[in-house]
Design goal:
The complex is a heterodimer of chains A (546) and B (431). With 546 residues, chain A is α/β, with parallel strands linked by helices. In chain A, 27% of the residues lie in helices and 17% in strands. In chain A, helix 9 packs antiparallel against helix 10, helix 9 crosses helix 11 and helix 13 packs parallel to helix 15. The chains are: A alpha/beta (546), B alpha/beta (431). The interface between A and B is medium-sized, with 26 and 23 residues.
């Protein structure tokens, strides 16, 4: 049964990001599939998340891990079929888990029938579904995103003897959103999935939908028109469905994507994530508070999406050169850890497998304003494999137990879509769900605990934030408030114990209740509130006036 | 009764907030509002440009300023409370951007300035904050450039030196006291060729800072009036790794005649005091060894310096005449006779030879050691003689190039080293 799409559900969501291929293989062919995913829904539910974001599962030549779609209305045979998807969707909804799927709207695979038709002749009805040109000199002010692989945003098509526009790989031609037929067709695609019951879409590469001469071809007003048109249709026909923007931009440049509450419901806060890592290693809250100070207010119905790691590299596009150099030196000293303008590593290895740091980073993820996303495997501290190409090193099989293929698949190990992590530190024999389930103090158990606490209060999802600025810059402290509920969050970013004095006079008379242990702390008075904190320790306090 | 504490509770609270640092920059001040801003800006730029990743703090030890100096220092903090867009700095093209918080804090250690207490406060902070490198900068070094910071810090940070002493680019007639007394005498006494043994800018390692802080010198006259030379001597005698670093132009603030007496007290007096406790060490040293100098010295552009030379001669001659009873208790008869003879020379023939000058200084040091009269009077009595030596230096180098002056200074150092046995002789005799 589809879940009722209540307005604003996404503000209270905790999202778990999964690639079907990586999660569980039900038919022993070495590749994860929807039947396998459906079998693991109890695990997802027990973890405590209430939404799943699926990476692309559509038919595709898989030259960009599914972001090169050749059929928008079906399931890649590797992962099962449409019935399998429906079964999975139904199982998720039965457990109160919503499902967000990818909508790679900017481009298709060059193997998509639309492109094959478009390139077949200049007179083909689908010719204008893509962006063609006789020269490769148009839109010269447009940057190249994949600098490591692409020389130009134009590629020569020997069949139609003209150039086609692509912002990403040359095998991913951009759709022409100036063409109403394209917009209409993409809406039909979305309608198809919404009618099946999906709860929302993550729209990939949103800023690049429209091209105009003399511009950067990013974030154009015409792109916003396309989004508004789409949003209106969603609201009119599928109220409660959610649109999430993937736009790797500065917060101020992202703000227009929320419009007046009439464009996207949510957008990723890309610049915050690297600054959380930076603040941790600098032992200084400045990078974090600065970027959040620059983050504009968004309409009440909208929400930021926060994450620590995902399926891509840890992007360093939205940092200064000094910051990027620092991040590379600190987090990617081995050059093979770097890709494009980023770092292709998982959370645990980035944090030197330091449990205290992993907890602190997750603590911030769960308490800063926004909807948190957990990347599959990070809840158990999975490692990565930097010797696999592209971003495949962070897309290795989920580690379920210490047995055959880590419990991911019964296939021959050689036939797996990717080798599992095998080393003694992060390998499946050391890091897996089964063993962590059996230990009360495992990372997995701790993650379940913090998610439970996060879900216990709507303040985290919908409350306001006010930073305290204690003189000790190693401590990041803020007040989250919603209605009569107030929560104080204090994070020690330092590897050493710290003393911090907080000015809590506006809350004089309240007592503090520590939310993890439910212990009572002294009442707030006129004097600065003194806390001593262990290395990387954080506190969540509920304020109560008794 | 509780023991008196050096650091106030408020300062301690500020230090707790700063936490462990890599680099600590100390600024001893007293009513320096007129000059402090460019100094602070250069320090800030030096940290952001050369040490953007290091944890740094600027610590102001103030001796009771009434002109708002501490407020100017504290205003240099870079933190997240000022809600500026950090990218603005980059857009403005300043090319410096603070990756992390830069604290700038201040404490008032007394109502009147006292160099020893100021340095002790800075070192105590460096010790508590476990600074790897501690740099001290003079608040009136208006010619300071951001690069000075790295020239002082890098040898400590990268090459494990414990004391980095500066070498300044000076105009030919600046630094006369340093060239004619402090450098030659320190070099002859302690056997190390440190050009600025009494520097207002220097860097030290955390371990030297901690060691020096624990010395029992802070309540002594030596520690109170001349902690810098005390530090140099501690580094030399403690076998710490010492080097020098070329900084740049050092401009001297204008000083009145009364300033010279105070300066002599702080520098020469402190040097003389240091001889007392270190006799077993320095008495066995002969000759000197060079101290490595890092970086490159740029060419000095001579500028005309206006000095009233006739007035110098008058002050020298008047001093010789008026202070004769004092000199009789300080100087040997032959030396005094030499000086009296020099005092009668025509201006065009005036010459205070290097050997006579070295003997004069050594006899003063021995008299100071034996306190033949009040030590303060001994230092004051040296002032007119120093003026005579200054005149001689100016005349001797009137047309000399920078290189020639260096040769002459080197020759003077040789004279001090050659006559060091004479110091040992008079040292014992003056009892």
């Amino acid at each position: 049964m589809p879940l009722k799409r209540e307005a604003g559900w996404y503000k209270e969501a905790i999202i778990y990001q999964i690639h079907v291929r990586t999660f569980f293989d039900s038919n022993a062919d070495g590749i994860g599939d929807f039947q396998g995913l459906a079998q693991k829904l109890d695990y997802v539910q027990e973890l405590g998340v209430n939404a799943i974001w699926l990476m692309p599962f559509f038919p595709s030549p898989l030259r960009d891990d599914g972001y090169d779609i050749s059929d928008y209305r079906s399931v890649h045979p590797n992962y099962g079929n449409l019935e399998d998807f429906k079964t999975f969707l139904s199982g998720a909804h039965d457990r109160g888990i919503r499902v967000i799927i990818e909508m790679v709207a900017n481009h298709t695979s060059d193997q998509h029938p639309w492109f094959q038709e478009s390139r077949s002749s200049q007179d083909n009805p689908k010719r204008d579904w893509y962006v063609w040109s006789d020269t490769d000199t148009k839109y010269r002010g447009t940057r190249i995103i994949f600098l490591d692989t692409e020389m130009s945003n134009w590629a020569w098509d020997p069949i139609s003897k003209s150039y086609y526009w692509h912002r990403f790989f040359s095998h991913q031609p951009d759709l022409n959103y100036d063409n109403p037929a394209v917009r209409e067709e993409m809406w039909k695609v979305m309608t198809f999935w919404l009618e099946l019951g999906v709860d929302g879409f993550r729209l990939d590469a949103v800023p690049y939908l429209i091209e105009r001469e003399g511009t950067s071809c990013e974030n154009l007003p015409e792109t916003h028109e396309v989004v508004r048109e789409l949003r209106k249709k969603v609201d009119d026909q599928f109220p409660g469905a959610m649109l999430l923007a993937e736009a790797n931009q500065w917060p101020a440049d992202l703000r227009p994507y929320f419009g007046n509450g009439d464009e996207f419901h949510m957008a990723f806060h890309f610049p915050l994530m690297p600054r959380m890592f930076m603040g941790l290693r600098l032992e200084d809250r400045k990078p974090i508070t600065e970027i959040l100070q620059q983050t504009p207010e968004i309409p009440a119905s909208c929400q930021w999406c926060l994450f620590l790691r995902n399926h891509d590299e840890l992007t360093l596009e939205m940092v200064t050169d000094i910051e990027r150099d620092y991040m590379y030196d600190i987090y990617a000293s081995n050059k093979s850890m770097r890709l494009n303008l980023g770092i292709r590593r998982r959370l645990a290895p980035l944090l030197d497998n330091d449990r205290r740091r992993i907890e602190l980073m997750n603590g911030m993820l769960m308490s800063l304003p926004g909807t948190p996303i957990i990347y599959y495997g990070d809840e158990i501290g999975m490692g990565d494999n930097i010797y696999l190409g592209d971003r495949n090193g962070v897309r290795t099989p989920m580690q379920w137990n210490g047995g055959w293929n880590g419990g991911f698949s019964a296939a021959d190990p050689e036939s797996l879509y990717s080798p599992p992590i095998l080393n003694p530190v992060y390998g499946y024999q050391a890091v897996n769900v089964l063993s962590q389930k059996r230990t009360e103090h495992s990372l997995l158990s701790w993650m379940k605990h913090i998610l439970r606490i996060r879900r216990s209060s709507p303040v985290f999802g919908s409350g306001s934030i006010e930073f305290l600025y204690p003189a000790n810059h190693r401590v990041l402290a803020y007040i989250r408030q919603l209605g009569k509920e107030t929560i104080l969050v204090v994070n020690n970013l330092s590897s050493a114990a710290q003393a911090v004095e907080l000015d809590l006079r506006p809350y004089k008379g309240n007592i503090l209740i520590e939310m993890f242990g439910r212990n009572i702390f002294p009442r707030i008075g006129d004097l600065p509130y003194l806390l001593t904190m262990g290395p990387y320790q954080f506190y969540w306090f509920r304020l109560r006036r008794i | 009764m509780a023991e008196e504490t050096l650091l106030t509770d408020d300062f301690l609270r500020q230090l707790i907030n700063v936490g462990e640092v890599d680099i600590l920059v100390g600024l001893p001040t007293h009513n320096n509002a007129k000059t402090i801003e460019p100094v602070i800006q250069a320090i800030q730029a030096g940290i952001l440009k050369c040490f953007p990743r290091e944890r740094a703090v600027i610590i102001n030890a103030d001796g009771g300023s009434q002109d708002g100096t501490p407020e100017l220092v504290v205003g240099a903090s870079i933190d997240d409370v000022k809600k500026d867009d950090p990218r603005d700095e980059l857009r403005k093209g300043s090319k410096v951007y603070a990756l992390r918080t830069l604290h700038s804090i201040s404490t008032q250690y007394a109502r009147s300035p006292e160099p020893g207490t100021a340095l002790r406060t800075i070192l105590a902070a460096a010790d508590l904050l476990r600074a790897r490198a501690c740099v001290v900068v003079s608040p009136d070094s208006t010619a300071i450039e951001p690069d000075w910071l790295q020239r002082l810090v890098r040898p400590v940070y990268n090459d494990n030196f414990d004391l980095v002493s500066p070498i300044y680019r000076r105009q030919k007639f600046e630094g006369v006291l340093m060239r004619n007394l402090l450098y030659p005498m320190t070099r002859a006494i302690y056997g190390y060729g440190i050009r600025e043994p009494y520097a207002s800018e220097f860097a030290i390692s955390g371990r030297l800072a901690t060691d020096f802080l624990s010395k029992e010198i802070w309540s002594d006259e030596w520690g109170r009036i001349g902690p810098e030379i005390c530090l140099t001597v501690t580094a030399i005698t403690g076998k710490y790794r010492v080097c020098q670093s070329f900084l740049g132009t050092k401009t001297q603030p204008h000083r009145s005649a009364s300033d010279l007496v105070a300066t002599m007290r702080r520098t020469v007096g402190a040097l003389f005091v240091s001889l007392d406790s270190n006799f077993p060490l320095w008495s066995t040293i002969t000759g000197s060894q060079p101290v490595p100098a890092l970086g490159t010295q740029s060419e000095v552009v001579p500028e005309p310096v206006r000095v009233n030379r006739k007035r110098l001669q008058e002050m020298f001659a008047t001093g010789i005449a008026e202070l004769e009873p004092v000199f009789r208790s300080i100087l040997s008869a032959p030396t005094l006779a030499e000086l009296q003879k020099i005092a009668t020379l025509e201006f065009s023939e005036f010459n205070y030879p290097a050997d006579v000058w070295a003997k004069t200084v050594f006899e003063f040091a021995a008299s100071y050691h034996n306190s033949v009269i009040s030590r303060d009077h001994i230092v004051q009595a040296l002032v007119p003689l120093y003026r005579g030596r200054t005149l001689s230096f100016l005349l001797e180098n009137r047309d000399a190039s920078g290189e020639d002056i260096e040769k002459n200074v080197e020759s003077l150092c040789g004279e001090f080293e050659r006559l060091k046995p004479y110091l040992l002789e008079v040292w014992a005799d003056r009892k």
